Amino acid sequence: MPRLHVITMTDLADPPFPPADAHVSARTGAGLDTLRDRITACLRPQRVSVAADTVVLRPRHRDRLHAVRETVTHARELADADAGRPTLTHPELVASTLRRGLDELGEMIGRSTPDDVLAHIFSSFCVGK
């Protein structure tokens, strides 16, 4: 998993700054292009892929993985639409889209329990009899 070391609030301190992947100031916008480029470089090689040879135990898992791929692709398209701008036009849309992907993963690994899973569990087991 790639990591970026970012020094922030550079407008409040005098150089030289400690070594980092990016030095940024949200107030002045300095370094944001570098940060954006570094983030893009980290993400581009990591394509989301659900290959045919991927082992998925249940159709529900396969469906969740495909949904996650779609949400990540959509979030990336939203962010790419703002390429060259200092900030995202609608960061809440990107965040919301990524949240949907996390929710899909959460359902797959059991962090949340959707109604269809509960229905399957209760239809398969005799509870309270």
Q: What is the gist of this entry?
A:
This protein has two domains: 1-46, no CATH class; 48-129, no CATH class. The protein is 49% helix and 3% strand. The chain has helices spanning 32-43, 59-80, 91-109, 115-124; strands spanning 6-7, 22-23.
Break the fold down into its secondary structure elements and pairings.
Layout: E1 6-7, E2 22-23, H1 32-43, H2 59-80, H3 91-109, H4 115-124
Parallel strand pairs: 1-2
Helix pairs in contact: 2-3
Kindly list the characteristics that best describe this protein.
single chain; 129 residues; mainly alpha; 2 domains; two-stranded parallel ribbon; 4 helices; 3% strand
Describe the overall structure.
The protein has helices at 32-43, 59-80, 91-109, 115-124, and strands spanning 6-7, 22-23. The chain folds into two domains: 1-46, no CATH class; 48-129, no CATH class. The longest helix is centred in the middle third of the chain and has 22 residues, at 59-80. It has a two-stranded parallel sheet with strand order 1-2. It is built from four helices and two strands, in the order E-E-H-H-H-H. 49% of the residues lie in helices and 3% in strands. The protein is mainly alpha-helical. It is elongated and about 65 Å long. The N and C termini lie far apart (49 Å).
